[in-house]
Fold this protein.
Amino acid sequence: MGRPDGALEIPFLKGHMGGNTIALLPGGSLPPERELETVLTALQDTHLGCHEAGLVSPPSGSGRLPLKIVGRSSRKYITACGGLTQVLGAAIGTGQLAEVFGFGPSGPSQVVLETDAGAVRLSVGVSDGSVRTETDLTAFLEEVLESGVEEVRLGGTRAVRAGKFLVVHADDLLDRFTAEEIVALVPRVRLFLAELQAEFLDRYPQASLDFAVYDLHPKRPDTLGRVVFPHWLPGGHVEPACGTGTVAVCAVLVFQGLLPGPSASRGLELRFESGGGPDLGGPDTTTALLEMDAGNIRSIRFSHSLVELTAKGRVMLETNER
């Protein structure tokens, strides 16, 4: 079977961070006027079946890697995606980015990404064949803080707006649901959360399809709490792990005075149970490293315990308007 007229075959890498599925595509490989629409097609289940895509371009004159990010549910370019940076780190550390795309760093690296949120620094380490990436999401934190963090009430339930994120403490749902129902995100919990998000989107112009639910009742002694990210429940989009969502949760913990330890602590390591599936918590660990100044977050980095590359090859994408 030949390639249809107007179709392009472009290389791709696919991976995930704790179930947050990511596609990496080479930047500049698609017609600019149809780039967004074509990438959204690539994200569909009929093609690569991912939550987000990253268009990675060859290093600029400064040595930085330009990166554009597309969200499947939001159907637009988005400013940041922590899971994408972790998968990109795995692609760099294993040498797959250079092998499949023909450019970029390979192996242990210090990388700066050029994103719509600003410079994002990756520290990619390799030990005994295992890659671990630390992502500096301070630029996204600054975006959140600039937009503001405030307590809101939606559907009679307390919540917090952290920039464009809706953040809900699971304990604030206990007057309506059992703890077991909340952890499992049973259908009636999902319906209520979708109603909260609809009100949030209608009320706040800065709101987006970014949603975090957390609690402070971990199952493991080395973690602070559990997280899940039901970004778009009408479309079934629940991410078991999310880097930007973890940043939003940390910002809320500071706002509500819920950080562990003395407020004067200059450095904090917060671990959250995540991953595994579309429910609260999970078998993986998302680690946030906070540098504090006078009780405020000065910088934030994060990593995740399970990041994998799962596929590589070429994807056929139709670029003609129908």
